[in-house]
Specification:
Layout: E1 2-7, E2 11-15, H1 21-26, E3 39-45, H2 55-62, E4 71-73, E5 85-92
Parallel strand pairs: 1-5
Antiparallel strand pairs: 1-2, 3-4, 3-5
The structure holds FE2/S2 (inorganic) cluster.
């Protein structure tokens, strides 16, 4: 199993294949996920350990300020289980 490191706190959690970044960062899948476009993270390491960016996620990224080449929306990106991942929380609910 791979691990996810969450910055700036440096918290490390087990990251099973198929889990979303949002669920891992939040400590469990939110019961009623309300999209507020506030799940922006920067992938510092292990970008290839995450699912590819979908057109839906691309649309969300297009709507927020401060997007960079390492940006992902945590509710869309899922763990592939191929390598450890480190993300930095940029905006979160
Ligand atoms: S919470 Fe809406 S894009 Fe992630």
């Amino acid at each position: 199993m791979t691990t996810l490191t969450i910055m700036p706190a440096g918290r490390t959690v087990d990251a099973p294949e198929g889990a979303s970044l949002l669920s891992l960062i939040g400590g469990g899948e939110p019961a009623d996920h309300d999209c507020s476009d506030a799940c922006h993270v920067s992938v510092l390491e292990g970008r290839k350990g995450l699912s590819r960016i979908s057109s839906d996620e691309n649309g969300k990224l297009d709507m927020i300020v401060g997007v960079g080449s390492k940006s992902r929306m945590a509710c869309h990106a899922t763990i592939l289980g191929t390598e450890d991942v480190t993300v930095e929380i940029l905006s979160f609910v």
